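Lecture notes, part 5. Sequence design as translation. It can be helpful to think of inverse folding as translation between two languages: the language of shapes and the language of residues. The source text, in structure tokens, appears below.
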């Protein structure tokens, strides 16, 4: 089994001046982040292409049908990531890359650098995985 590390650097926007209000400053930062993602689109698309190709190769290496539960779980994980990568590519194409699907805020640059196919901010992802449903 091979693990992969993905690293790229998004362009950082200049710091906001003290003459802007917090809400205005956040909106400007969000707009600059979206512009940065647009400008970095070829790089991001290439990264997603590489990840997709690697995951497809992993699927091919698993082979045909098996009764091994570990192999089945591994295949499911690879298929899930492959689906998330394809969703990220679609979001990059339609201009919603970097916008959280949960709260519609920004997905942080650090999270996108670690997980380029992330569709949720850290807060929403944590809520999704760690909070118990209320009855």
């Amino acid at each position: 089994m091979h693990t992969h590390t993905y690293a790229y650097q998004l362009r950082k926007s200049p710091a906001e001046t003290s003459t802007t209000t917090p809400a205005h400053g956040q909106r400007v930062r969000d707009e600059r982040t979206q512009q940065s993602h647009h400008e970095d689109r070829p790089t991001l698309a290439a990264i997603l292409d590489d990840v997709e190709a690697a995951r497809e190769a992993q699927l091919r290496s698993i082979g045909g049908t098996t009764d091994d539960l570990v192999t089945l779980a591994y295949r499911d994980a690879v298929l899930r990531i492959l689906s998330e990568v394809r969703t990220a590519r679609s979001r990059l194409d339609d201009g919603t890359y970097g916008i959280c699907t949960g709260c519609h805020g920004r997905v942080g640059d650090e999270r996108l650098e670690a997980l380029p196919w992330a569709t949720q901010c850290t807060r929403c992802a944590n809520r999704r995985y760690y909070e118990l449903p209320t009855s």
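The translated text above is only one of many valid answers, since several sequences can fold into similar shapes. The two ends are 40 Å apart (CA to CA).
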